[in-house]
Specification:
The chain has helices at about 5-15, 15-20, 30-40, 40-50, 65-75, 105-110, 120-125, 180-195, 235-245; strands at about 60, 80-85, 95, 115, 135-140, 145-150, 155-170, 170-175, 200-205, 210-220, 260. It is of the alpha+beta class and about 270 residues long. Strands 10-9-6-7-8-11 form a 6-stranded antiparallel sheet. Strands 1-5-2-3-4 form a 5-stranded mixed sheet, with helices on both faces. The chain starts with 6 loop residues before the first helix and ends in a 10-residue tail after the last strand.
Length: about 270
């Protein structure tokens, strides 16, 4: 059994599932077509929009001038705007265009590595450079949730929404599991539309109108999936048992809603 954990592996492994089966190895991954549609953020947004599933307002751009044009359509500089590559991994290339990011106050208050920047800075960086397809999107200011999911050809067997209370470089380090029916219903519509299988993750954020909208799908076990172990829910093991053809519906423990978690680094000391 091969259980992929890194997004970049998926696009290589999924088309070769049959070749691995020939040597007696199963790969826990969705089919290649569904996988690519989920990994490509442009395809994802377009497919959901066509299916009538609400998404944040978005445009596509392949040049600095198009980014500037669409950012202004979305209200920049009076409003923040999000940009990101259609194909990326681990939040690479994602920036929040924020007119206040270049201020004197921001210089002293923001830590290095902050994702906020100004449109003007981006335009200087991108001028005369070939760009991949970029999404220029409405910025969602509200709280963010991750949903860990186990799917049977698009049908959710398990949905675990958790609020992201504290993040470090895009990784959840503190949160709380919540039985949020609005998010669970939205996630169900998304997963049914995309027809994904096995372990998957979904990230949503609340917009200005108070509703939740998708940020992205992670069609694999997510890095913070281990937090569900605090409820006795072992998603890697359930995923493997599902791939082996076992009936896992009766083996999924009841989630303990309201459970909080904190992930932390540990100091280690040793002699040379």
């Amino acid at each position: 059994m091969l259980l992929p954990l890194v997004t970049r592996e998926l696009e290589v492994l999924a088309p070769n599932k049959d070749r691995f089966l020939e040597i007696g190895t199963r790969i826990v991954v969705s089919d290649a077509q569904q996988l690519h549609a989920a990994n490509d953020k442009l395809q994802l947004m377009q497919k959901l929009k066509q299916a009538g599933i609400p998404v944040a307002e978005f445009y596509t751009a392949t040049s600095a001038s198009e980014i500037a044009e669409h950012a202004r359509k979305l209200g920049y500089p009076n409003k923040k705007v999000c940009i990101k590559p259609a194909l990326s991994n681990g939040s690479r290339g994602m920036r929040i265009l924020d007119a206040g990011a270049g201020s004197f106050e921001a210089f002293f208050e923001q830590k290095s590595g902050n994702t906020h920047t100004t449109l003007e800075s981006i335009l200087k960086l991108f001028v005369d450079k070939p760009l991949p397809t970029m999404l220029v999107m409405e910025y969602l200011p509200g709280e963010e949730y991750t949903v860990d999911a186990l799917l049977d050809n698009g049908e959710p067997l398990l949905l675990l929404p958790r609020k992201r209370i504290t993040m470090n470089n895009g990784i959840s380090v503190a949160g709380i599991f919540e039985e949020n029916r609005e998010i669970m219903d939205y996630a169900t519509r998304v997963f049914r539309c995309m027809k994904l299988h096995g372990p998957n993750g979904l990230q949503v954020k609340r917009g200005e109108d108070g509703k939740f909208y998708i940020l992205e799908i992670n069609p694999r076990l997510q890095g913070s999936t281990t937090t569900a172990m605090g409820m006795g829910i072992n998603l890697p093991v359930l995923s493997i048992k599902q791939a082996m053809g076992e009936d896992i519906k009766t083996r999924i423990p009841q989630p303990q809603w309201g459970l909080r978690f904190v992930r932390y680094y540990e100091d280690a000391f040793f002699n040379q």
